[in-house]
Amino acid sequence: MNDAPPLRPLQDTTPAAAGQAVRTPEQVVLELPLAGPTSRMFAYGVDVVCIAGLLVGMVFVFVNPIVLLQAAAAGVGERWADALEDPERVVGAVREIVVVVSAALLAQVVVETLFFVLFETLAAGRSPGKMVTGLRVVAENGRAIGFPQALARNLLRFIDALPLGYLVGLAASLASPRGQRLGDLA
Fold first, then answer.
1. Single pTM value for the model
2. CB 29 within 8 A of CB 21
């Protein structure tokens, strides 16, 4: 005899449930456990390290390190120090900094979005961080999400990250019966 408790039918999934019941096409009810905030944050931390590695790799591929070394040897620091003596040159130096920082932020947003969309679409809902923690993104029916769902949930990741440290996403997941952030709800 099987001593395991009976699985709840799909209709009995409640906010207090520790998982979500999903009925397969073969009429088998599966209980999918829900991830908590700690495992999600750990998975995201692993993914952030991977994304940072990708960005550093992109710098070495797209920005020739020899050019950077030559610029340093040519006295870029001295040029900016001289620029501080002339107000017009200060504006030019600040513009250069703003352009570089803006390009870096744009690259980070694009790489992070593509990273999650591609992994969630092509790796059955699992980014490297989710693989480490044993998590997976699934649709309401328990199946892997497709490209449109992955794109929607990851475009909203930046709203979830507001105002700082994923506070909107944390508030949404605490308010959601299944611990979903805004991107998950979309």
1. 0.69
2. yes
